[in-house]
Amino acid sequence: MRVTIRDARRGDATVVADYNRQMALETEGKQLDGVILRQGVEAVLSDPSKGRYFLAEAEGRVVGQMMITLEWSDWRNAWFWWIQSVYVHPDHRRRGVFSALFRHVQRAAMGSGQVCGLRLYAERENETAKATYQRLGMRETHYDMFELEF
Question: Of 62, 63, 83, 133, which has the most beta carbons under 10 Å away?
Answer without folding.
Answer: 63
